Amino acid sequence: MARTNGQNMLNLSPATLNVAKPLKKFPIFLAVLFFSLLAVVSARAQGQSEMVQFTGVIVGGTESMPLPGVYVFITKASRGTVTNEYGYFSLSVLPGDSILFSSLGYKQKYHIIPQKTGKAYSVIVDLQEDITQLSPVTIYPYPTEEIFKESFLALKLPDEQDMQHMRKNLDNNQLNRMMFLSGMGANENYRNFTFGQVNNNANRNFLPTFSFLNPFAWAQFIKSVKKGDLKRKEYQK
């Protein structure tokens, strides 16, 4: 037993040191052997299940149009791809893999790769539209129906004044009054002038007669009575 710098140390011989060095490297050797065996087993497993090139076209809708942007996902491997603008996809899979097809607005669909298949496998997938019927929702701008009625009745239209003027101008009594005050029109003036010319030509060689004895005046009076002009209030004014 030798003492060095106040600490006890074992005095080992060179033979003892040569035996201890291989013992320290033994756990490392076991770890390398374990990982090597694991790699061999994994390689054999991969050799038994060859990869399959899975391709296809995804269509949907009532007209079975190609669907772009559909997710093609392998659930076990957590990887996948997306269809192009023509609805086409290509993906490497293993026999027995479950493939999920998912797209917004369409129902999800699963497809399992057959165990016995070649190196290439193609399908055409038809996705069904996912239509959800929602219950109708009625939105009111007012909290209660009574407040809505009060606000609606108190509502003033921007052209309310114009509407009032229109109703006043189109009133039947107002139109009749304007008709009697406007005087004769062009046709009536022409008829009256022609009637006067004919009367003057017919009576120019005779003495003037009173209207009371004029048969044309009586005919016009009777015509006015039949039309009911004497009963109108506007005519009396």
Question: What this model shows, in words?
Answer:
With 237 residues, the protein is of the alpha+beta class. It is 42% helix and 20% strand. The chain is built from seven helices and ten strands. Strands 3, 4, 7 and 10 form a four-stranded mixed β-sheet that branches. Strands 6-5-8-9 form a four-stranded antiparallel β-sheet, with no helix packed on it.
Key structural traits:
42% helix; four-stranded mixed β-sheet; alpha+beta; rod-shaped; 237 residues; 10 strands; disordered N terminus
Give the SSE layout.
Blueprint: E1 2-4, E2 7-9, H1 14-48, E3 52-60, E4 65-66, E5 71-74, E6 79-82, E7 88-93, E8 98-102, E9 109-112, E10 120-127, H2 145-153, H3 160-169, H4 172-181, H5 186-203, H6 215-227, H7 233-236
Parallel strand pairs: 3-10
Antiparallel strand pairs: 1-2, 3-4, 3-7, 5-6, 5-8, 8-9
**Whole-angstrom Rg:** 56 Å
Mean pLDDT: 76
Helix content: 40-55%
Number of DSSP E strands: 10
Describe the largest sheet. Answer: 4 strands, mixed
Quick synopsis:
This protein is of the alpha+beta class.
